[in-house]
Structures are given as structure tokens and as C-alpha cells.
Amino acid sequence: MYRLLVAQVLLSCWSVAQPFCPSQCTCVYHGRSDGTGSRSVLCNDPDMSDIPVNVPLDTVKLRVEKTAVRRVPTEAFYYLSELRYLWITYNSVTSVDPGSFYNLKVLHELRLDGNMIATFPWESLKEMPSLRTLDLHNNRLTSIPVEAAAYLVNITYLDISSNKLTTLPSDLVDIWPPFSGILPSANASQKIVLGLQDNPWYCDCRISKLIELSKMASISVVLMDQVLTCSGPENLAGVLFQRAELDQCLKPSVMVSATKITSSLGSNVLLRCDATGFPTPTLLWTRADGTAVNNTVVQESPGEGVRWSILSLHIITFKDAGDYHCKAKNVAGNAEAYITLSVDGVQTSTPSPPLNITKRPDDQTVTSFPGTRTPLYTTLTPALTTRAAMTTMPPLTTRKSPGPGGGIQRSPPAGDKPAKIQQSKGGKGSMMSEKSKKKVDLKDIEVVEVTSDTAVLLWRAEGLPSNAPLTMFYFPYDAKDDKETVDAEVGQGKLLLEYLMPNQVYTVCLVAKGSVSGKEQCVDFTTLDNGEEDGQNKVLMIASGIACAFAVPLIVVLVYKIICLCCKGNRSRNNGPDDDLSKETYVKFETLTMKQRTLNGQANDLWARRQTQESERMLLCSRSSIDSQMTYKSDSSRSEYLC
């Protein structure tokens, strides 16, 4: 009896030690001859509405299929650290929490096909660094964000077919060869499999790379279905990707002002890059190692399909030398150009005279220089280092200054005219320079012709010759440290300031070189806003249109009147005076029937009587017909002519 009791207890403990399997699932252990094995769990109960939480910890493959599960909660598989295959297929899943796949470090395959997922948490893929297969086939995805590209770099099998996708971000296509720029690995048999079919693709520039990818052969990207068709626009509806031609897409083309530039140490350098393409590309400056440039960058797009960018390097040093890459990018492709900057400068060091080192009997070191009688008592350090003093050149400027004749000229660099320094014994040179300083009076400083990015500075100086140097510096009102300096001459009287920021308050000052400190004259001005210039241009255009609307009809009417008068004068000269006389002198008469008129007739018998002269009778008789000359006359009436 005792032995039976012990056996029963052992059997109970053994059953407890076995992993527990959920009631609605089937657990299968696949053992091997070497004693190892793997466990797979299948949950396909139609009444299951939640992800099971009591799955054995050694599960390698978990399948949840054809259930009523509608949501994948946070950390649903936290304890399944050995899980490699997770299939949640053909359920009713509509939402996936961003933390659902936390702690799945060795997961290799994730399948969520056959659900109703409209938005997928792409950021959750970073919790699965070993993931290579992602199946989202037959869901309701409408778009894939640009941020998803960073999480799909390691995916070699991606199925997003049978969704509602109309486009893909260009950055996502860039992670696949040949757009990724990564050379084929030694294992050429490794392919990237993509499922893109059965989506309503809208064939425009946004998927131009995808269309180009479908036309390529012998690449490491394999499409599950080569028959990809366009659903829009109307002129491309039903057209295969291989036959689609996009007329409105143009890859970027990059041009630089110069491929190699050499500039002096401490100068200012402007690097310009121009790009064309459709849609209008974006420009990015980087160094040769791919790091972004932290210097000031100005970009502008003067028109559709064109963009330029200027990189400003201030007071360059030897660290600024190297290659600067200008990268242009749009949805149709990428392009790149580079500029090599060389810094020209001299590193000088002050040579020290040779040291004469001797030792005294008391072991004290004595150091003396040649030409000196008194020895110097010094303590030598283990190593003597001499730092090279770097010579710096004044910064170059690209500001324009008008010459004496009023024309705009480029102002010379400040380093082109170094000041001459004369020294003499006992400081006589410095005393003479102080005496030779003249009092400079700057008057009538004003800023005119201000636009959004330029301004013209006018001044009048007294007390200096016309070729005397002047220094002008300007800076934003709230940033005094960002000073820009331009050298000019007194006789110019005018200077053009360029590359200003719109709608910004600036302070500009003039000071004569060599004058007493604090004698500079300053003035403030504000640049115009781009919108104001556009408004002024619109007003001018509207006024010109109204003037044209009134002037053109007036001109037409005047021309018409002049033509009519000319035609009438020509016609009068051609007809002559006889025709006019015949028209104005003779009249036509109708013949009258012979009828006796009574003086006492009825009221409705109306007769016209007119006293005529004898000349008129003769004239009328000469033109009347025979019948009118034989008009009936009564004895009691006189001759009358009736009409």
C-alpha cells in the first residue's frame, strides 16, 4: 500500500511538471533523437475572443487562426522569449497595440494576413530585431508612413498585397536595391521578396521608382506577381507597370558653381548648388563622411522644378577643408554633386635662439642666449613644445559696392589692402601716426532702395581724400554678434548690401579706419517682406490692366473715325460737283389723273397750293412728264402744278 501511495504522488508531480496547454489550443512537442525538441501551439477555436495567456514558455511556434480575436493587447507574448514563428491569421483583428510584440527578440516570422487591420504600428518592429518575414496580406491598409522605412530595412519577405494602398513613400523604395546603393553581397542567392499586387495603385511621380523597379531585370528584388496595374489617373487606368510612361516625372539634376575651390585661411566662403527636377527637389548638404553640415544654409525655389542652395562658411580653418556633398532628392529619384574645398594658409612659428645649457658645480642648470652676458637661471621641463602661430587673413566678402560713377561694382576683399605699419626706435612711429590722424566727419548716412534682400547705403564724408578707406559693418538688430564687415572708400559714397533676410531690422554703421574709437555713425533700417513686394507687383499689374482696358477702345475708335473721314473725302473728290447739283436741284413728280377740282369741295378733298415764281415753273416743266404738263385746267382756275 505504501508503494502504491508513493507511485501515485510521483505521477501527480510529473503531471504538474509538464507544461500546461490552454484549453482551446493544441500543444505538440516535436522531439529529436538528440534529446532536444520544439513545441508548437495551435489555437483555432472559433469561440476564442482573446489571445491566450497561459501558453507554454518553451513554445517556438504559435498559431492563432480562424478565431474571433479582434485585438492584440500590449505585451501579449512577453513570456514567450523563445518564440520564433507567430501566425495570427484569418481572424477578426482590427487593432494591434504598439507594445504587443515586446520582448520577442528572436522572432523570425510574423504573419497577420487575413485580418481587418487598417493601421499597423510600424514602430513595434524595433522590438523584433531578428524579424525577416512580415506578412500583411489581405488587410485594409490605406497608406504606409515614411517613418516605416527605418523599421523595414532588415525585412527580406514583405507581403502587402490585397490592401487599399494607392502609393508608397519614396524613402521606402530607397531601402531596396538598386536604389539603396548597397553593393550585392557575396551570397547572391539571397533575394528580397515583395508582394505588391491587388492594390489600387495611382501611377504618378510618387511611385515612379516602384514602376521603374518593376521594369528591371536581373536584380535582387523579386515580385510575387509581375502583373501590377495602374488604377489611376484615367489615362493610365488598367495599364501595366511595365508599359506605364510618366511624363510629369523628372529625376533631379545637380550642378555646382565649381568642383574645386581654394580659399585663404580665415576667409568666408559661399558654396552654391543648383538642382532641377519635377517635382521640385529638396537639397541637403553633407560632409564626405555623411554627417550633416551645421553651417548657415539658404535655400530658395524661384520657380517650379528649380531650387538652389547656398552654404556659408565663415572664417574657415583647416578643419573646414574637404569635400562637401550636395544631395538633391524628389519622388522620382536622387542626384548628388560635390565641391572640394582647399584652405590656403601658412603656419608660422617664431624661431627661438639656440640655448647654451651648462651645469654649475651645485648641479644647478644655467641657460644663456647668444649675445647676452647674464645667464638665465631656468628649470627645464622634460619636453619643450612650440606652438605654431597661425596667420589669419581678414574674411572675404561678396558684397557689392558701387563705384564713383554710380555703377555697381564688387567690393574688394579686406585682405587685398593690408595696412602698412611703420615702426621706429623709441616709439617715434606710433607718435607720428597719432599726430597724422585726421578728424573725419561722416554726414547724411541713409539707406535707400530697400527690398526684401538688398539695400543701398548712401553717405557723405568730409576730412578725408576720396581714396581713404572706410569700414562698414552691419548686423541684425537683435544679434549684434553676427556682424558682417565690408571695406569701402570715402569717394564711393554708395554701397549695396546683399543677402539680407526679409522683414528684418538691421543696424549699419560706418567708421573711418584710423579714427578715434566711438566715432562711427549708425542707422537702422528694415527690409521688406516678400509679401509686400508681391502686393506691390499685383497693384501695378492691376493698374496697368485697367489703363489698357480704357486706352485700347479709345485708340480703336479714333482710328475708325480717321479711316471714315479719309474714305468720305476720297468719295467726294471722285463724284465731282455735277452729281451733287443734280441731286440737290431736280425733283421727281408723279403723274396725276385729269380731274376737275371744285372750290367748294368736301372737307376730305385736300389740295396743295403753292405760289411759284416763273423760273420755278420753267424748271419744273422741263423735268415733268408729258402727262403732268397736260394737267386739267378749269376756266375759273389758273395754271397750277400738282404733285
UniProtKB/TrEMBL annotation:
<keyword id="KW-0677">Repeat</keyword>
<dbReference type="InterPro" id="IPR007110">
    <property type="entry name" value="Ig-like_dom"/>
</dbReference>
<dbReference type="Pfam" id="PF13927">
    <property type="entry name" value="Ig_3"/>
</dbReference>
<keyword id="KW-0325">Glycoprotein</keyword>
<dbReference type="GO" id="GO:0005789">
    <property type="term" value="C:endoplasmic reticulum membrane"/>
</dbReference>
<protein>
    <submittedName>
        <fullName>Info leucine-rich repeat, immunoglobulin-like and transmembrane domains 3a</fullName>
    </submittedName>
</protein>
<keyword id="KW-0256">Endoplasmic reticulum</keyword>
<keyword id="KW-0433">Leucine-rich repeat</keyword>
<dbReference type="GO" id="GO:0030425">
    <property type="term" value="C:dendrite"/>
</dbReference>
<feature type="region of interest" description="Disordered">
    <location>
        <begin position="394"/>
        <end position="438"/>
    </location>
</feature>
<dbReference type="Pfam" id="PF13855">
    <property type="entry name" value="LRR_8"/>
</dbReference>
<keyword id="KW-0393">Immunoglobulin domain</keyword>
<keyword id="KW-0732">Signal</keyword>
<keyword id="KW-0812">Transmembrane</keyword>
<feature type="domain" description="Ig-like">
    <location>
        <begin position="252"/>
        <end position="342"/>
    </location>
</feature>
<keyword id="KW-0716">Sensory transduction</keyword>
<dbReference type="GO" id="GO:0007601">
    <property type="term" value="P:visual perception"/>
</dbReference>
<keyword id="KW-1133">Transmembrane helix</keyword>
<dbReference type="InterPro" id="IPR003591">
    <property type="entry name" value="Leu-rich_rpt_typical-subtyp"/>
</dbReference>
<dbReference type="InterPro" id="IPR003598">
    <property type="entry name" value="Ig_sub2"/>
</dbReference>
<dbReference type="InterPro" id="IPR050467">
    <property type="entry name" value="LRFN"/>
</dbReference>
<keyword id="KW-0844">Vision</keyword>
<feature type="transmembrane region" description="Helical">
    <location>
        <begin position="539"/>
        <end position="563"/>
    </location>
</feature>
<feature type="signal peptide">
    <location>
        <begin position="1"/>
        <end position="19"/>
    </location>
</feature>
<dbReference type="InterPro" id="IPR003599">
    <property type="entry name" value="Ig_sub"/>
</dbReference>
<feature type="region of interest" description="Disordered">
    <location>
        <begin position="350"/>
        <end position="373"/>
    </location>
</feature>
<dbReference type="InterPro" id="IPR001611">
    <property type="entry name" value="Leu-rich_rpt"/>
</dbReference>
<keyword id="KW-0472">Membrane</keyword>
<keyword id="KW-1015">Disulfide bond</keyword>
<keyword id="KW-0966">Cell projection</keyword>
<dbReference type="InterPro" id="IPR000483">
    <property type="entry name" value="Cys-rich_flank_reg_C"/>
</dbReference>
